[in-house]
Amino acid sequence: MAEEPFVPPGFVVPRALAAEHFRLEPLGPQHNDSDYEAWSSSVEHIHRTPGWETSRWPDERTPADNLRDLQRHADDFEQRKGFTYTVLDPAGDAVIGCVYVYPAAGEEHDAKVLSWVRASRAELDVPLWRAVTDWLADEWPFERVDYAERA
Questions:
Q1: Closest Cα to residue 59, out of 36, 32, 75?
Q2: Is residue 9 helix, strand or coil?
Q3: In degrees rounded to 5, what are phi and psi of residue 39?
Q4: What tens digit of pLDDT does each residue of 112-141 get?
Q5: CA-CA distance, 111 to 94, in Å (whole number)?
Q6: Residue 57: which residues within 8 A CB-CB, separation 6 or more?
């Protein structure tokens, strides 16, 4: 039996999301330095973020390990297996966080979504969650999304 595609073959995957305090674009190797700095300076904060409490990541990885991880996410995006976006400051290219859109385990949900923001931009967690929740409802083909609610 053939595996169902994560998104329908004709679905045009959004390449960006722009909001007042951040913008999203596909995560790739070009973001390695800023991405590594963002999450490695915010490990405890990320583990307190809804959805990340029991995650093994962030972990003790090197910038070279991070680069391989970013390439894997870029490959998943290209192959339509999952979609990771970097969250950037709209005034430049500083990484604020990430959003991950991947198949959910089990039948209850179509997609599992996680997001985090760096500790120094913690005030953007709820606005990011709201913007991504609306974006998923408006522009993505999912009926049932597992995305940890924010207060």
A1: 36
A2: coil
A3: -75, -35
A4: 999 999 999 999 999 999 999 999 999 999
A5: 27
A6: none
Peptide bond into 90 cis (omega under 30): no
3-state secondary structure of 101: strand
38's tokens: 């963002």
Q: Under DSSP, is residue 96 helix (H, G, I), strand (E, B) or coil? A: strand
Amino acid at 1: M
Q: What strand order describes the sheet that includes 95-103?
A: 17-18, 23-26, 83-88, 95-103, 111-117, 145-147
Residue showing tokens 């179509």: 110
Q: For 42, list phi and psi in degrees, rounded to 5.
A: -140, 25
What pLDDT digit, counting tens, does each position of 15-34 carry?
999 999 999 999 999 999 99
The model's pTM: 0.94
